[in-house]
Amino acid sequence: MATPSAEGRDWDKEEIQQRSFEGGVDALKQETHASNFSEDRWRSFSSSYTHDPLDGNNDGLAYYKRDEFKTLFKDTEILAKGVEYDDDAWKAGMRRYGTSKLLMVMFLYELQRRLSSDPALSAIAVLALDPGGMAGTGIARDAPPLIRFLTGPFGVFLQEILVWFSPDGQLRPPRKSGADLLAACFDEEYLGKSPKGVYLNGSERAESSVESRNEGKQQGLWEDSLGLAGGEGWCYGVEGVAVKALLDSRERDRDM
After folding, report:
1. Is 97 a catalytic residue?
2. What angle, rounded to 10 degrees, do the helices at 215-229 and 89-116 form?
3. Given the residues 64, 101, 176, 199, the one annotated as active site
4. Which of 22, 112, 128, 130: CA 20 to 30 A from 195?
């Protein structure tokens, strides 16, 4: 069955799998050569409407109902050590999940600024995509009964209907979200050659939360995270190690 996706493109399941495989192999080959950093490269992060307490999609479950939960990021160290709660564990877990998505979006914007300011890495574009809620994945297996019902077999049936009326609605089939991700990563006609710092809701350009766009918080999160991780410079995690290794390789090639 064809999948409705960005700009009316139709990709079936086999094509999604094949393009994902080919894209992954191609990316692996490209990233083993430092010289390829002069070309455009895209990186995509998975986001969620739960990163924004003011998004209407969160209203029904009321985990952001209290005013104190309207701002998610106040202090990096507190988040790193854990946050106490006085309501039920599921709502607290959803806030924690939403906060993790907020931090990822903030990280994306700060990362893009730093990449763009480095001549050796400025061709890399970073974007985020909210794939929407997807029934049948098992992610809500510990949720309250109503949520388990809506994300179980009934939700799998329902999302196949809803996606035709609201392609980027709250509930979408995984194949639709996968097609949107492929379009975001491979289709230059869709977003342009180098979509830097772009936020997508499925196949649509969207705006992330007000809090996520606070540059002071973005920079603070970056520096605090480096301190907590015992890092230095601006390299980060696994991808930071990869970037550093590639740049070191480039230097060795020049010295030979």
Report:
1. yes
2. 100
3. 101
4. 22
214, exposed or middle or buried, with CB in 10 Å at 0-12, 13-18, 19+?
middle
Which amino acid makes up residue 8? G
In a domain, 204, yes or no: yes
> Radius of gyration over alpha carbons of the chain, in Å?
20
Q: Domain span at residue 185?
A: 21-251
pLDDT tens-digit profile, the chain (256 residues): 444 444 455 545 455 445 444 444 344 334 333 334 445 666 788 899 999 999 999 988 889 999 999 999 998 988 888 888 888 888 999 999 999 999 999 999 999 999 999 988 888 899 999 999 999 988 888 888 988 998 999 999 999 999 999 999 999 999 999 999 988 888 888 887 778 999 999 999 999 999 999 999 999 999 999 888 876 554 444 445 445 555 565 566 566 6
The answer to whether 88 and 182 are in contact (CB under 8 A) is no
Number of domains composing the chain: 1
CB 90 within 8 A of CB 57: no
